[in-house]
Write a structure and sequence with these properties.
The protein has 336 residues and is of the alpha+beta class. The protein has 2 domains: 187 residues, Fructose-1,6-Bisphosphatase, subunit A, domain 1 (Fructose-1,6-Bisphosphatase, Chain A, domain 1, 2-Layer Sandwich); 132 residues, D-Maltodextrin-Binding Protein, domain 2 (3-Layer(aba) Sandwich). It is 31% helix and 24% strand. The protein contains 8 helices and 17 strands. The longest helix is centred in the first third of the chain and has 23 residues. The chain is globular, with a radius of gyration of 19 Å. The protein binds 2,5-anhydro-1,6-di-O-phosphono-D-glucitol (AHG) and manganese (II) ion (2 copies). The site of one manganese (II) ion (MN) has 4 residues, from β5. The site of one manganese (II) ion has 6 residues, from β5.
Length: 336
């Protein structure tokens, strides 16, 4: 049998070779991965585990919480509270930050997460996931919301799990992107793809086209040219895929290329897009860039955005480099 590399082995070997994953960061990543394993278990139970349907509550963003949103949030909070590696956590499902309770030792990292991404797909048995981001805590043992407001360039690790036909964990610690597949019988994450690279060119795009009438002109122009296909200015046919789970769309893009767009639109000019900067856009942008892709707001690199609020939203264009650069250039041309 060929030797398999587990997540633990990978992290230890990285530290030996590159000194970029100290012991406390490794343990923190392993705890997150273990929590994702527990979430995967509940997801797979479906109707048998009483995890489908609404929890009957709303989160800070005014979205109805599903039972699995609440459960996944609790699993991540509980798993990460006691290990001594964190100063605080922040979650899509919590209005305020969650400092580590005083009964536990505190560490020097901050963990941010979208516990369950793609909530509208839970009940219909389509891929969903968890997204996370790790920052250093600049304020020792007394973190505030302000401590979390760091640009994405400051992330020391980011990843996501996809709960789909296979359960995978995709991770970067700033040295490429690795994908691990959960071996359910053994209970371990096995390294299955090293150094994922997004093809620079693609003929596949992902956007919720039901919002087309609200788009700003650069997005209308870009998507219009794709729709014109062979006969249009691009001289090629493009295919469209939209799963309504960012984790699943980004995972597809990492494997075979593509561009994902969630633009700001004209419905509410004060709301810059739908996705949240700190625990959706930033971790995904870090992963995509580490895999040779690009990620912008249409105007600037996502990782350079200085956050103002914990739950702020941002427009997202990410994936195959040449397409992201093209749609970003259309935004710049529209401003000229
Ligand atoms: P969440 O389930 O955490 O609220 O995130 C859903 C996000 C993202 O995963 C997905 O790409 C997008 O929202 C789906 O948006 P539409 O409802 O417009 O399809
Ligand atoms: Mn989400
Ligand atoms: Mn979510």
């Amino acid at each position: 049998m060929s030797r398999r590399t587990t997540l633990t082995q990978y992290l230890i070997e990285q530290q030996r070779e590159h000194s970029n994953i100290p012991g406390d960061l490794r343990l923190l990543i392993e705890v997150v991965a273990r929590a994702c394993k527990a979430i995967a278990h509940h997801v797979s139970k479906g109707a048998l585990g009483d995890v489908l349907g609404s929890a009957g509550s709303e989160n800070v963003q005014g979205e109805v919480q599903k039972k699995l949103d609440v459960l996944s949030n609790e699993i991540l909070l509980e798993a990460n509270e006691w290990g001594g590696n964190l100063a605080a956590m922040a979650s899509e499902e919590l209005e305020q930050i969650h400092p580590i309770p005083n009964r536990y030792p505190k560490g020097e990292y901050l963990l941010l997460f979208d516990p369950l991404d793609g909530s509208s797909n839970i009940d219909v048995n389509v891929s969903i996931g968890t997204i996370f981001s790790v920052l250093r805590c600049p304020d020792g043992e007394n973190p505030t919301e302000q401590s979390f407001l760091q640009p994405g360039t400051q992330q020391v690790a980011a990843g996501y799990a996809v709960y789909g036909p296979q359960t995978v964990l995709v991770l970067t610690t700033g040295n490429g992107v690795q994908s691990f597949t959960l071996d359910r019988e053994v209970g371990s994450w096995v390294l299955t793809t090293r150094n994922m690279m997004i093809p620079e060119d693609t003929r596949e795009y992902a956007i919720n086209a039901s919002n087309a009438r609200h788009w700003y002109p650069p997005v209308t122009r870009y998507v219009g040219e794709l729709l014109d296909g062979k006969e249009g200015p691009r001289g090629a046919d493009f295919n469209m895929r939209w799963t309504a789970s960012m984790v699943a769309d980004v995972n597809r893009i990492l494997i075979r290329g593509g561009i994902f767009l969630y633009p700001a639109d004209m419905r509410d000019r004060s709301r810059p897009g739908r996705l949240r900067l700190l625990y959706e856009a930033n971790p995904m942008a870090f992963i995509v860039e580490q895999a040779g892709g690009a990620a912008t707001t249409g105007k600037t690199r996502i990782l350079d955005v200085q956050p103002q609020h914990l739950h702020e939203r941002v427009a997202v264009f990410l994936g195959s480099k040449n397409e992201v650069e093209r749609v970003t250039a259309y935004h710049a041309q529209a401003e000229e």
